[in-house]
User: Fold these one by one.
Assistant:
Number 1:
Amino acid sequence: MRQRSYKQAAKVEGGLIAVLLALTAFGAGFLAYWFVDRRFIRQDVPQAFRYSMEELTAIEPFLLIYRQIRPPIETGLQTAVALDVDSEGAVWAAGDQKILRFAADGRKDTEISLSSKPTAVKAADGVLYVALTDRIEIYSSSGQRVSAWAPVRTALLTSIAVGPEDVFAADALNKVIHRFDKQGNSRGLLGAKDSQRGIEGFVVPSPYFDVLIGRDGLLRATNPGRQRVEAYTFDGHLEWHWGIPSVKLEGFSGCCNPIALAQLPDGTFVTGEKGLVRVKVYDDQGRLLGVVAGPQQLGWKGPIRVCETPEECGSRGLDVAADGQGRIYVLEQVRNTILIFEKNE
Amino acid sequence: MNHPPSETLSRRRFLKDGLWTVSLAAAGAAAAALASRSRAKEWVWQIDPYKCIGCGRCATHCVLSESAVKCVHAFEMCGYCDLCTGYFHPDPKALQTGAEHQLCPTGAIRRRFIEEPYFEFTIDESRCIGCGKCVVGCAAFGNGSLFLQIRHDRCQNCNECAIGRVCPSGAIVRVPASAPYLLKVRNP
Amino acid sequence: MGLILSAAAVQAAERFPPPQFETDYQMPTLTTPPPRAAVWEFVDVGVLAAALGLASWLTLRKRSRRGIAALSVFSLLYFGFWRQGCICSVGSLGNVVLSLFDSSYVLPLTAAAFFLLPIFFTLFFGRVFCGSVCPLGAIQDWVVFRPLSVPAWLETTLRLGAWLYLAAAVLFAAVGAGLLICRYDPFVAFFRLGFNTPLWLLGLLFLGVGVFIARPYCRFVCPYGLLLRQAGRLSFWHVRITPDECIQCRLCEDACPFGAIQPPTAPWPESMRPAERRRLVFLFGLLLVLMSLGGWLGYRVHAGLAAAHPTAELARQVRLRQAGLIAEPTDALRAFDVSGRTLQSLWTQEADVFRRFAWGGLLAGVFVGFVAGVKLIQMSIHFKRTDYEADRAGCLACGRCFAFCPRHRIWETGKPTDSGETS
C-alpha cells in the first residue's frame, strides 16, 4: 500500500471552501426540487393506472324530473337494509335488529325490536311482513308479532311481495323466488333456470334481489346479473323482460343492477342502481322516462370507500319505495338516510 | 517518555473511569428497559384492504422497480359475473377478452368461462403491477373481491415503507409477521 | 334444486357467498407467501455481533487495516447488498424512539439489538462499528481518493447539522410523522439496486463529496454516529496510532482523512487563566441564550414541520378546498370524502398533531441550542495532550493511521522493540 500523506491537501483550503459551497448550493437546489416535485407538482400516478368514474356522475339537469321535497330522514340505524311505505304514507325502515316507523312528517313514532337482523320489509294487508334472513314474520302496525313462518332452509330473503292470496319472497342465495300462501305454506318456486320454459335464471352476485307485484297482476323481479327487470306470472311463466347493460342513462350500469324496484301509481317503475348510484323511472317496456336522482343527488363520494371495520364497508346500496301520491323514497345505505323525491310540476 | 503520574492526571483518570462506569451502567439500564419493552416479534407492512382507495401509488412508489404490491382475489366473495367491472371498462363494447375491453393496463387478469353464466377471474401475478385499477372497478359496482396486498415473497420490509409514506388514506399499516396478511376472507 | 349450501358457511361470515356451481368447479385458494422466517432476524443479530467482535479484534489487537477493509467489504455485501440496508443500526434509532412514544408499536428484539450492540462495543472498543461494520460507512470508505482536510472549526460547525438532523429524526419518529433516517438513507437505493431517481442522486452526491471530504455522511449527517461519538469519548480501549509509545515523529500527523488525529498541545501560559475563566462564564451564559433561542426557533417552525404529518397536511388541504383554492381534489381529499370521518374529528386530530409538534419543536430547539453552546465551551477548554492521539469521538476506527507509525511497522514485523519494557 502506497503511503499517501494528506499534508499537501491541507494547503488547498480555498479549494475546499469552493467545493463545499458548490456542494451546498447543489444540495439545496436538489432538495428543493425533490420536495417541490414530490409534494406539489407532479401527479405521481399515470392516468392509465386510475379508475375514473367522475365523468359518469354528471346528469343533464333537464333529465332530472324529480326533486327532493323534504330534508332527508336520518334513520339513526347503523345498517339500514330496506324500506317500504304503507297506505297511510308512513315510512318503515328496517335495519340493525329493528324496524322503525316514520310518520308522514318524518318523525319516528314506532320502533319494533326483532330477534335478528331484518333483510326485507313490506307493508301490506294492514300488517308488516318482515324477512329475517331465512324466514318471514308478520307484525301488526303497533309492533306486536302476529305470526312467524317456518324458515326456508338456507335462504337469504331480500324482498317480499304480497298479492291477494300469495306472498312472494326473493331469495338472493338460491337465486329463486319463493311463493307462499298467506299462512306461510310453500306453493313452489319461480325463476329457476329452465331452458324448456325459456328461463335463463336469475343472476344475483350480491345480496340485492327485489320483487314486487305490479298493478297488472304480474310479478316483477330484478335480475341484476343480467341487467334487467323480468315479468312473471304467478305460475312462473317468464312473460317478458326489459333493460340493457350500459353506464349510459338508459341502461343499468356495472355488473349487477338494478338492485331495487318499485312501482308508481301510474304503473311506471322506479329502479335503483348501486355503484354508479342512480334512481330512474322506466315504463313497462323499459323506456327511460326520466331520472329521479343521480350520484350527485344521492351523496356519491367516490367509487370505493374507506372504512374502519369491514362491516362498515359491507352494505352500500339503496332501496326504493313509492307511495300512493307518486312520491319516491330512497333509502341510502351509506349514510342510512331516507331521501324523499317528488315529480317536478 | 515516562510521565510521572501527576495528581491532576490521576484525578482525571479517576473521573474518567467513574464516568465510564456510570455510562456503562446507564447504557445497561437503557438496554434492560428497551429489552423489556421489546419482543421477539417482527413487524411487516400490509395494506388494510378496507382503507385502500386504489390510487395507484403502490405501482409507482415501491422501492422495488416491480412493486411488492399485487392484486389478490378473494374468490369466496366473487360474484363470478359475466360483466366483471374489475375486468372490463365501465362501459365495455363487448364482453370479450380483447385488450381494448380490459381495464387492467397490463392485462394481468385472466377470464375463464366456468359455466353459464359464470366466469372466473384470476390474477397473473407476474404481470400485475399493483396499480389497483381493478380493485376500484370491482369495489365500485361489485363485491370488492379484488384487493391489493403486499406480497411478502417480494417485500423488502423497509423500516419506513415508501408507499406508506404517500398513501393518501393511511392504508399501509404494520402487522405482526406471524399474521402478515389482511385478507378480506380468512384462509382456512 | 341447488338448495345445498352449508348454513354454517352462510352464518359464519355473513358474507354473501359465490354462486353454487353445477359443474365440479374447484375454487382456487389465495396464496399467501410468508415473510422471511424469524430465524433470519436472529442470524442478522448474530452476524452483527460476530462482525463487531471481529472488528474489535482486528482494530485493537491485530491492528490490521487490511483486515478492517476486508471486514467492511463483507459488511457492505451482507448488511448492504444482501440485507438491502434493512435492518441497520442507524435506522434502528427511529424504531427505538417510535416504540417509546407509540404504545401500539412494540420494539422488535432485533431492532433493539441492532441499536444497542454497536453502542456497547463502542463503550469498550471505540467506534469499531463505524470502521468495519456499518454498510453506510463502508460504501463511503471506498471512495476516499482525494481527501481534503477540513479545518476543525468547519468540521464542528458542519457537525451541528447532524445534531439538527438527530433532533428532527427523533421529533418526527416521536410524533408519528415517519422515520426520517430511513426515508433519506442515501445509499439504500444502491443497496436495493432499485430505481428511485432522487435517492440515486442523493447517494451519488454523497459519494461524489466523499471523494474529497472523506465519509461526509458519517461525519456531518449520521445521527447514530453522534451517539457513537459520545460513547467513543468514554471508550475503555480504542484505536491507538502507535502500538506502544509515541516517539513524536509526526509522521502520522496527516494520516487521518477524517481529521481525527490530535496533535500534542503546548501547555497554556499561566497568564491566560483569568481570561479563560471569564470566557467560560460568558460561554455558560451564551449556552442559556442559545438554548432559549433554539427553543423559540423550534417552537416558531413547528407549524411548518407539522405539515410533514399526513393528518395536518390533510387538514390543510380540506381548508384550502373550503376556501375554494383546490378545484381538483387530491387523493387524500378523495380518501377523506369516502371515509365516514367528520370534519370535527379531523380538526381534533390536527390540533393534537400540532400540539405534539409544538412541544417537540420546542424541546428539539432547546436541545440543538444546548449542543451548540456545549460545542463552544468544549472548543475553549484546554485539553492537555502530550502525544499524537486518535480523537476518541471522531476516530472512525478505519486503521489507516497504523501504517504511518514507525513503531507499528516495527511491531508488525515482530522484532523486539528497544523500549519493549515500557509497553
Number 2:
Amino acid sequence: MMYTRSEWLAALKDETKSLPKEEQQRAFAYYNEMFEDKFEQGMTERDIVLSFGDPKIAAKAIIDEYLESAPQAPEQKKTEEENPYLPKRAQNDDTTAIALLAGIALWPLAVCACLVAFILTLGALIGGGVCIAEAVHIGTTSTTNVTSFIGLGVFAMGFGVALFYPVSYGSKKMFTALKKFLREIKEGK
Amino acid sequence: MDIQLKKGLLEICVLSALKKEESYGYKIINDLRNVVPLSESTLYTILKRLESEKCLTTFTKEESGRLRKYYRITQAGKDKLQEFIDGQEEFITIMQYITRREE
C-alpha cells in the first residue's frame, strides 16, 4: 500500500494506540520531525514514506521497546502479583515449592525401585547360572531333573538379560536426574 | 549479527556521535550512514533506551521555523562510552579468538 505523509503518520498513530498517550505522541513527533528533516534535504514525500517502511513494522519496534523497558517506567509499576514483566520465578514460587516437595517425597521411592529392579536382574542372572551349573553337576551323577534345571536356568538367565539393559538405562537416567535435582536445590532454584 | 550484541554496539555508536556534538535524529542517522545504516525505528528505540538509562538528555530548539528535538550526551553516557573504549582490547581479543577458530 502506498501512503501519503499524513496517511503514514495516521497509520502509525493507529498502530501505537495501545501505548500510553505520551508514548504514542513521542513516536509521532519523532517521525514527524524526521519527515520534515528529510523533506528539507530535498527528498520527495513518496521517497520519505518509502524510507520509513511499513508503519505496522515501525509501530511494532516502538511497542516492543516500550514493553521491554516497561518495568522501569513508573506509570507501569503494578503490584508484584500482577506485573507481567517480572521474571517468572517470582510468580511461580508456589509451583516451585510444590514441585520441590513432590520431588523430595518421590526421589527415595524412585531410588528404592531402581535398587529392587537391579537386585532382581542380578538375582535372575546369577540364579539362572547356578541352575544350569547344578544341571550339569546332576547330569554327571544322575539324569533325573536335568531337563527341568536347565529349563529353569535358561528361563532365569533370559529374564535377567532382558531386564539388564532397560534397568541399567533407567537407573542411569534416574541418577543423572537426581544429581541435577540436588544441584538445583543447592543453588536454591 | 546477534540482535542484542548489535543493539549494544549501536548504542555505543550513537553515544560516540553525540560526544562530538549535540545532535538530532536525522543528523545522527546521516552521520552514522557510512559506519552502520540505521533505520528510523532502530534509532528511535536506541535513543529511548539511552534516555531511560540517563545516558542522554533532550531539549528542543527552534530552527527553520519549527521545533527540533536535540539529544545531548550526559556524564553517564560519557562513562558508558569510555567503559566500552577501555574494554576494547578484551573485545578485540575475543573477536580474534572467534575468527581464528572459524578459519
